[in-house]
Amino acid sequence: MPEIRIGRHTIGAHSEPFIIAEVSGNHDGSLDTALKIVRMVADSGAQAVKLQTYKPETITIESDAPDFRLSEGHELWGGRTLWDLYQEAHTPWEWHEPIFSLAKELGLVAFSSPFDPTAIDLLEDLDTPAYKIASSEIVDLPLIRLAASKGKPMIISTGMASVSEIDAAVEAARSTGNEQIVVLSCTADYPADPSESNLRGIPLMRDTFGTPIGLSDHTTGIGAALAAVALGACVVEKHVTLARDGGGVDSSFSLEPQELNALVRESRTAWQALGQPRIGAVATEREGLRFRRSLYVVQDVHAGDLVTAANVRSIRPALGLAPDLFSVVLGRTFTQDVSRGTALSWDLV
């Protein structure tokens, strides 16, 4: 499996999970809030902060027609027009430079999802270290080819996509000579039901597409993300907010600061716990091996005495004969005087 470099970070099975904190629209229309989120992300220990780069007019048109309106039953945005939603949620382009600059100053990787060629132009001017293709844009192969042609790592989200659509997107990126591709398992529902995450598909995706696999997670909490790491996810992307009750179009399924801290900490633990595909004692268990049970003489005995359940028992530590050999030595005679607390060995009976 290839390893991908983004900034100073390596993405792959032998590196700790790469945690991406997605700001999305949780800045709630305030640059100051956006910058506070960046500082919060840096404090958490996450490696990256991500934006979405579009204007309402670059992603849709202003229209009240049914085609451009979310269904009334949508849990978060029911009945809203696309124009209205994107007008509220978009990150103004003039904010990108101060956000990227602060992130870099704090040691974070900052990058974004472009939604049209003009967004790629802006992000190139900011020397973005990577591109993220959002789930809905996975079918926009010209956009994928253009982003991939810049020679930066490509992270492709796969919500709603079929195997053939994912393969087409990956091959579109590869057609430019760019092999720096990460594919993210994703359920594009907001918030997503954990039962629809199908994380067992992560190893299948890895083998199918030959790329590192991650998770773009829209469930609440961090349980699904930790399960994904256990199944081999190298990247975890979660939406973040300063406070769920403080507004922001995605705040209801976003992580608050203490939850992001927990995700960073526990995903690292989950990755470390994967270890190697082997069974058996490890070096740190060496001391414990000494304190398994074995057969010991537990009473002073004399030469010629019989071995009985009263004078030989299975106790700790493990320097005598194996406990299962008691039935073999029971009734034999001691060959010499033996003091209490002596490990039983064949020369003693």
TrEMBL record:
UniProt keyword terms in alphabetical order: Transferase
One protein family per Pfam: SAF
Keyword Coiled coil in record: no
Documented EC number(s): 2.5.1.97
The AFP-like domain, residue ranges: 294-349
Top EC group: transferase
Domain of life: Bacteria
Gene Ontology MF terms in the entry: N-acylneuraminate-9-phosphate synthase activity
GO biological process entries: carbohydrate biosynthetic process
NCBIfam families: PseI
Protein name: Pseudaminic acid synthase
